[in-house]
């Protein structure tokens, strides 16, 4: 068995449903979007990090992106950060901070910035040895952007822009992978509590920098990723990790209720990635999926014994696969996930969905 919990990140969220009679907003202005987290939302950050191996800027990644271009996204095309941005009125996700920095942090930052970095987690130790950008570091980068915005727009206008912007965060899976990878003996309850302490700290930092609207995406059933299924002789999910994912969601639900009460003017939307994804795994035909256990791009059993690479096996009907590679959803799955976060009902996103959050 190679790949001893090869870290990265995961995400796969999904949907059944729809709807909530969408709020009709005449006069809807596109909010700026600031995106934080791991590879589920990374749109190329790690390609700018010379020291990390956790990257996706090579084929077959990007094979379904315009011009079949590998962009650093861990996907055959776009990811959920792109589809969410699209639903909120933009063409795709804002550019990575490290890309904008190279270009001199000019205008494009007004529509938002993407700070997400593959293999990062809530804890600073998560992914540290992989030389990625931790959540704490991502927030420092945001602080720089805020400083630059203030120079251009002034204090008052910056405050208004940030208060109406959406802050999307997708993180937590890598911390749980790290726990298992390190065979930690910390009590699970204490471990989840430590993740919540870190989350609270990150949300408060962003709030203190002017963020008010938080779109939070919790941890999917990570034990069902192809990379983890190969630890189960039946190819079934690695259940103990799913237990952690469920505990993470319910603790996060409690934390956000508490924080929104404490931080005046804070609004949030919490996407239940666990429910969305398990629903797809249990009822694949409802979503036109044929394969929900194996990777589209990879090698070996379940195409999950080696990562996606130019010499891996590539599936042909990518829209019938839930998983693109060992850890990540396909473009089609990411689109379903984003649509559910945006328009979904209370079984998938609470207390309001992302459309309501954006419009508020
Ligand atoms: C649209 O929004 C702007 C700024 O919030 C407001 O001044 C204007 O009256 C609104 N227009 C309509 C038609 O609601
Ligand atoms: C943005 O802020 C950083 C840190 O304060 C500064 O070094 C940089 O020059 C600023 N860039 C622009 C375009 O204002
Ligand atoms: C796992 O252990 C390694 C080696 O001791 C350490 O560098 C890393 O920070 C640990 N990871 C986590 C998530 O605790
Ligand atoms: C392996 O998968 C089966 C379902 O196929 C499940 O019942 C079992 O609990 C799983 N084992 C582990 C160790 O997660
Ligand atoms: C469902 O999958 C088939 C291929 O198996 C494809 O031809 C069809 O367009 C898909 N339908 C939708 C709604 O995506």
UniProtKB/TrEMBL annotation:
GO terms for biological process: lipid catabolic process. Keywords: Hydrolase, Lipid degradation, Lipid metabolism. It comes from the Eukaryota. The keyword Lipid metabolism applies. The keyword Cell cycle does not apply. GO terms for molecular function: hydrolase activity, acting on ester bonds. Pfam families: Lipase_GDSL (PF00657). Belongs to the 'GDSL' lipolytic enzyme family. PANTHER family: GDSL ESTERASE_LIPASE (PTHR45648:SF17), GDSL LIPASE/ACYLHYDROLASE FAMILY PROTEIN (AFU_ORTHOLOGUE AFUA_4G14700) (PTHR45648). This is GDSL esterase/lipase. It comes from Lactuca saligna (Willowleaf lettuce).
């Amino acid at each position: 068995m190679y790949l001893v919990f090869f870290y990265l990140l995961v995400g796969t969220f999904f949907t059944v449903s729809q709807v909530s009679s969408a709020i009709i907003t005449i006069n809807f202005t596109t909010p700026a979007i600031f995106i934080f987290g791991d590879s589920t939302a990374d749109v190329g950050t790690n390609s700018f990090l010379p020291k990390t191996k956790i990257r996706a800027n090579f084929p077959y990644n990007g094979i379904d992106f315009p011009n079949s271009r590998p962009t650093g996204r861990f996907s055959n095309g776009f990811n959920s950060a792109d589809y969410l941005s699209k639903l909120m009125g933009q063409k795709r996700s804002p550019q990575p901070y490290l890309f904008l920095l190279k270009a001199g942090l000019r205008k494009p930052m007004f529509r938002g910035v993407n700070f997400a970095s593959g293999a990062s987690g809530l804890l600073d130790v998560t992914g540290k040895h992989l030389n990625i950008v931790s959540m704490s570091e991502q927030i420092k980068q945001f602080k720089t952007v805020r400083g630059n915005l203030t120079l251009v727009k002034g204090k008052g206008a910056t405050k208004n822009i940030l208060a109406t912007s959406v802050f999307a965060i997708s993180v937590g899976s890598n911390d749980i992978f790290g726990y298992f990878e390190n065979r930690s003996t910390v009590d699970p309850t204490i471990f989840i509590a430590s993740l919540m302490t870190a989350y609270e700290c990150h949300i408060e930092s962003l709030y203190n920098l002017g963020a008010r609207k938080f779109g939070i995406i919790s941890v999917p059933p990570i034990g069902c990723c192809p990379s983890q299924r190969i630890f189960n002789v039946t190819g079934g999910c690695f259940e103990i990790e799913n237990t952690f994912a469920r505990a993470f969601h319910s603790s996060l639900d409690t934390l956000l209720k508490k924080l929104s009460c404490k931080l005046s003017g804070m609004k949030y939307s919490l996407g239940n990635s666990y429910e969305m994804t398990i629903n797809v795994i249990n009822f694949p035909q409802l979503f036109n999926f044929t394969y929900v256990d194996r990777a589209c791009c990879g090698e070996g059993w379940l195409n999950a014994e080696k990562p996606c690479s130019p010499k891996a096996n590539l599936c042909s009907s990518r829209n019938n696969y839930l998983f693109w590679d060992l850890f990540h959803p396909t473009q089609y799955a990411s689109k379903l996930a984003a649509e559910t976060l945006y328009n979904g009902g209370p079984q998938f996103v609470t207390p309001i969905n992302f459309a309501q959050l954006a419009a508020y």
